[in-house]
Amino acid sequence: MPPKKVFFCSSFHLCENNSYLGTQIYEFLKRNGHIIVSNPRDADAIVINTCGFDQSRENEALALVREMAGKYGARKQIVVSGCLPKINPSVASLPGVRTIGPKEVGDFDALFGGRTPIAAVKANRLNKGLAAFGFTDDYYIMICQGCVNACSYCAIKKAKGAVSSKPPDEVEAELQAGLRLGFKRIVLLADDCGSYGLDIGTDFAELLNRLNAVEGDFKLNIHYLEPRRLLALLPNIHMGVFEKVYFINIPLQSASQRLLKLMNRRYEVSDVARAAAEIKSVNPACHLQTHILYGFPSETRKEFCASFELGRVFDSVVYFFYTPKRGTPAFQLKSTVTRTELMHRIFPVSKSEAAADAGNLAKWQVASTSYYATDVFKSIRRDIALDDLDVLLVEPKTPEAYKTAMPLTLLEAARPLPEAGLNVEVLDQRLEEDVAAEARTASKRNKLSLIAVCMSAASQEPPVLALAKALKGSKVPIAVFGPRAAASARTLLESGDIAYVLTGPSLPHAALRLKAGKDPSRLKGVLSAKGGKPWDGPQPPSHEDPPYYLAIQYFDRYDAGLLRAGDMHPEALVERLRTLLNFLKKDRVRILEAGFLADPAMGGKFAALLSQALSRADEKTRAGFRWEAELCPAAAARVPAALLKRLKACGLAGLVSPEQSAP
Question: What is the dihedral sign for C-alpha 586, 588, 590, 595?
Fold first, then answer.
């Protein structure tokens, strides 16, 4: 078969299983001499790798396939792979479309031919162009597909069916091959690792015990381990195995037993918490992650808040917004979670810290990434179909300006808006292709009361000018806030495209007044281009934004870390620091609420534990690790000099007061 020009694309880049399949297809095409082109117009064939685990992802994939079929289906071959063909078989009826399900990849051989069959192509190294998220420098082994579970909200079972496992000999052979190539971090990939082997007379416990016996310097990553299967397998796993495990995802989904029953997930949260603690007792450096599915039908505010308690057990929590999936049992459940309530919940999730029920919600820790922020924000906007926005909140930084989770300034401004009964949408330049265009579309589609622009010290003027140009002629006032508010207000007015710029009133107050029909020119702090009033407001602060944000940074994506001590015991705090050192590879951390250092006993224990943790880190990490402790001046004065000396030997860069914290 002669080589073809092939355009390859994916509808979703945040699923490692999808990225593994995409990498396998991509490498298969290249090894057999086919030419990958960057524009579908130049292609003989188009391959679209899809995802459809929830309704949002299905809709995105379907839209992409329909677009390609509409443009090219009459004259080009279009191959749709991944989960969508089995989840929505109607895609096969589109012009020119041929579908290949997750367990039918062998069909690529017949379509594209070549000397190397696709079954012989391994995807142990994920193609970084296809994987926007994951351990892309690690060595992946796909151990099984499908699962033995039957979650009421999930369509993956429909896409992949019952579990289909790779024989243990083949898994071990792939591990040995990875070690020969010099890899030391091995990811065991599956829809559910806990389902492994049940179709071939073995199980995941036996596989882990076998891999643990392999000689070599390596660590294991257990990609996804369903809690019920974890509880069943744990008694048969040699606990020494976990000394080699650096990451486990144990997706609890909810802390509510009532909701878990509706989800058809049969386990006790307390049992899973004890199992997690047992693993931590063997290897405190093992990073335990969980998933929380929020907004599930009938979820109460109390149940939502209770799920945040899981941060006490896990090192990181990834939040997903529930979207009703046609064809699943959960689709029949009636949702009592209103749009306003969902908007209220989005900000605690994004902030990684919340007090929705002040006084009842204990402190917790959570890891977050802008990639999941993308998922959360876009799901909220799309799935609750906000067509009556009141406020558009804009972060106009360019994507290169920083690489962190959303800064405190933006989220502190955002959170009071839904609490005041205002529908709000957040546009972040790092998560959107074109914020200015999105803002223009939103202003035309909605009767916006206000557009609020966050201007931090790192914000740049060009994006603000682009925003002003995009909104030219719009009568919607713009409010600016943050350290660069003064300079940005002047820039906006001088552009001649904006009539009113607000700098004085609080955002909820201004938005509510404007929504009620208040004349913008009569609001406190308004600057009018018509009046030509010169800027006489406060000058922007001279300091730069400190590099401390809300999320514990991980996956080598970000530049800083933050831990909140509060009433956390020294052992727990040091475990978090050890995680930052060993797994997150972070070398700059700020510990908030560190008043415990003023207690000689508690501070001394913390210093001893931290010294022990650092002794296990490599020399480069020990030499470069720096951290700061935030506590009030009175408490700082009580920290014993001897303890301070010990802490400085462990990387303490200084004690800072809360006034020096990030704005």
Answer: positive
